[in-house]
Amino acid sequence: MTDVLLVAAAQPQLGVLAGAVQKFRAQGARVYLACAFDTKTCQEEIDRLELDGYQPLPYGIGHLRTATRRKLRKLPASRRLWIQIRRNPWLRRHGLGAHQLVALDANAVYTVWRLSQYTDADASFGIAPALRALSDPQRSSAPVKRRTLPPRSVIVGDVRRQAKALPETVIRTATARPLMRSSVGARLWRTALGAPGVPANVRARLSRQVAEGMRWAGRPGGATLALTTAAQSISNRTIKAGLLDEAAKTELKRGVPPRALDSTLKELLTASDEEFKAGDPATAASTLDRALVLGFHRVIHIDQLSSPLAGDPAAFSAPVHASAVMKKIQQPQGRKTPAATPPKDRPLRLLVTTSANDNFLKLILSHYEAHQGVEVRYLDLASTTAMKRIAWAGRRMIENRLGGDALYAEQVEQLMRPHLDWADTVFLDWCVAPAVMLTTIDPGDTRIVVRLHSYEAFTRWPHLVDFSRVDDLIYVADHVQDLTTALVPQLRGPEAPRTHMIDNAMDLSAFNRAKPADARFNLGLIGVSQVAKDPLWAIDVLERVRKQDERYRLLLVGGDMDPKTSRATSDYLKEFERQLEPLVESGAVVRLGPTDDVPSALTGIGTILSSSVREGCHVGLMEGAASAAVPVVRDWPFYAGREHSARTLYPEGWVVGSPEEAAKRILETTATEESWRNAGKLASEHALSAWDWPVVSRRFDELLLGE
């Protein structure tokens, strides 16, 4: 069977196309249509074509970033279309699998030509030539490779002389999908990319062409190798750093930490220093921003079961803070006047602010809204597009600190000064981009209080905050404070803010409900939406206890991981689902899904698990303990063996070092209903006495009100 892919940049004459489709079918072909136009006005006509498949493709650019739109508008319409649709999975699948590629209009020709570079398909402009090619008696059903490798002298021996003049069509042909899949072709291009005497910009361009061909050939590792090979032969720091950065991004898209992370980070930081020394703060800021995004990328630290940052925090961040540009950024600006003491003659004016994430603020807000000595305002910095854009403008923040983009500080003044003038105290939840934004300007005599949970320590944001303008920094656990302080030198200096350890605000009394006897055999996991929760560890524990007693089950409460978060998350989720499927079918695992009524869900759980590799203070575990479920806490690997860890946060006996220990604790504490209920009662008493809101609220009052 022959597959024909028709590509249309504009709506074709559908009546004519209908006749053509029938002719293709008469010759035994399956016909597919790629529509890069608005199909809404002609949906019925397209349906009547009886195609074997069609796909509307993204034809507009309004959804793209301003800079991207500006670049695209400079290109011819045909090339612009290709850039817009080239990553579409449907187009890739059918384009690379087609025997006949047909452009129905002039603006579709470039797309068809590009697709033909990666396949052995015939390519035609217009229906008539395509039909003639399909009916040609000389045509063989076997694939015929019509493109050949340029002479070896062009690729290797004569690269120095011919590289600048090497036509783009030759490059495209030489990086075609079949060739890139061959070890011979890949080896030739690696030799060419490392050939001496090639200008840096030409070498960079060739490496990107080869990398693109490798990706289309299904060899992303080859794409990384092409970029790094070229970078090794380039002395221009900016170009070299750019290629290494692209190579690292190629690996990150695959969900794996870059192999050359350290050297790439070093090149970006050095390039940033040189650009700043040359008097170009804008470029230096952009390069440093890329370095920080790479160095603290979530695929490396957040979506994995381990992190180089956790192994030796000070050593990991040392190269970043050795950078001249980072030293410039981290020079404390201080404040002109100290924060004023809380007023005695009127209520304290408290501004509570965050950006979109108010998960841990609800009790705090309701507490102070009802407090006679406090007047509260709430500001969500993600509530408007303009406000969010300023609050998360990482590159502009850096450039401003380097003496450029004075307009950014003016915009922050316009945004925040009215709030700062009103407030006596600002309580900012989450030490991320808004904390950097807020410390860009002098807060006057307004007191600034920032809370850092756990996630932020694995991001770039604490490294950009001017902590000399923060009066109080709240941590949710001692081990988080240890990690963050080791990472950020400013937190170890004389300008560091006062620090406090205050647990998250939780109304745990609502969880203390009676449990039925059969809950004894139900293990529970609250929250499985992140790789860090490592639910596979919980499955391991479940299988071990079920070997002794098949009455044990695992109840999963909460939404699933989002595979779109990153490739690393997607890969973990696939393995998790693979292992989970037979357990769900047998009834050993029950997926309860997300719920707004966690206290009710916990009444059926007899043992609460914390299977995570890292946590700040595990709220789900604490809620489970308050419900009188027996706590079984993994010794979180990111912090295990350190001065502060899960073992210092929770009572002795709760924390286990392995799945074997976890299974043993479960079997022992739930051996009888009496032992199970006694262990649960002790856990509940500890949770309510240590972490319930009436206890924690007093610590907030002491900090914010001086009570």
Describe it.
- The structure is a single chain.
- With 707 residues, this protein is an alpha/beta fold.
- It has 4 domains: 134 residues, Rossmann fold (3-Layer(aba) Sandwich); 160 residues; 154 residues, 3-Layer(aba) Sandwich (Rossmann fold), CATH 3.40.50; 184 residues, 3-Layer(aba) Sandwich (Rossmann fold).
- Helices cover 49% and strands 12% of the residues.
- The chain is built from 35 helices and 17 strands.
- The strands form 3 sheets. It has a 6-stranded parallel sheet, sandwiched between helices. A 6-stranded parallel sheet has the order 14-13-12-15-16-17, sandwiched between helices. A 5-stranded parallel sheet has the order 3-2-1-4-5, with helices on both faces.
- Helix 28 packs across helix 33.
- The longest helix is centred in the last third of the chain and has 20 residues.
List the helices and strands and how they pair.
Layout: E1 2-8, H1 14-26, E2 29-35, H2 43-48, E3 53-56, H3 66-73, H4 77-85, H5 89-97, E4 100-103, H6 109-116, E5 122-125, H7 127-135, H8 152-157, H9 159-162, H10 168-174, H11 177-180, H12 183-193, H13 200-216, H14 220-232, H15 237-253, H16 261-277, H17 281-295, H18 298-301, H19 308-311, H20 313-322, H21 324-329, E6 348-354, H22 362-369, E7 374-380, H23 385-391, H24 394-401, H25 406-422, E8 425-429, H26 433-438, E9 447-452, E10 472-475, H27 478-487, E11 498-501, E12 522-526, H28 535-546, E13 553-557, H29 567-586, E14 589-593, H30 598-602, E15 607-610, H31 619-626, E16 630-634, H32 646-649, E17 655-656, H33 659-669, H34 673-691, H35 693-705
Helix pairs in contact: 4-6, 12-14, 13-14, 14-15, 15-16, 16-17, 17-24, 20-27, 28-33, 31-34, 34-35
